[in-house]
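Today's session is about reading a structure prediction critically. Students often jump straight to the picture, but the first step is always the sequence itself: look for stretches that repeat, for charged clusters, for runs of hydrophobic residues. Only then move on to the predicted structure, which in these notes is written as discrete structure tokens rather than atom positions. Here is the chain we will use throughout the hour.
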Amino acid sequence: MTMTKKMMAMAIALPLVLGSASVLAYGGHHGKGEGRGGCGMEDGRKLMQELDLSDAQQQQLKAMRQSKREAMKAGFAGKREQMQAHHQQMQALMLADTFDEAAARTLAQTMVEQQVERRVAMMKSRHEMFSMLTDEQKTRFQQLMSERQAQCEQRWRDAKDQ
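Below is the predicted structure for this chain, in token form.
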């Protein structure tokens, strides 16, 4: 097999292997946090249901979720193209005869900045949702999160001991 074919095979296999490893690390439950015994990112709706929200609060949350969903769908097409371009740039860096560390750092920095923007937007969205809660509901939410965190820490300790 020629060197080019070997490199192409590695370029194709590497993302598959890494993707499989990450799925296995989370127990095969993509995005649900269930692979760690229900720990990780909790489904916000489950917690919100335990807060005894008023009908008006429920309607506000529903409207917020719907508008966020629509905005996300609208912006996804451009983001998909950008993600594909980044992926192609990464592959070009990996397949090049020599490694261009400066280009790799620039690409990685760009990707990190975009992730920071996504996280800030997510935090802003959650802040908007939590701002409609009463002080008592916010306190109850913090209690629920503390309880879940303690449960998760115990599961992680138990899993580590096995």
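Discussion point for the tutorial: The chain has two domains: 1-30, 42-161.
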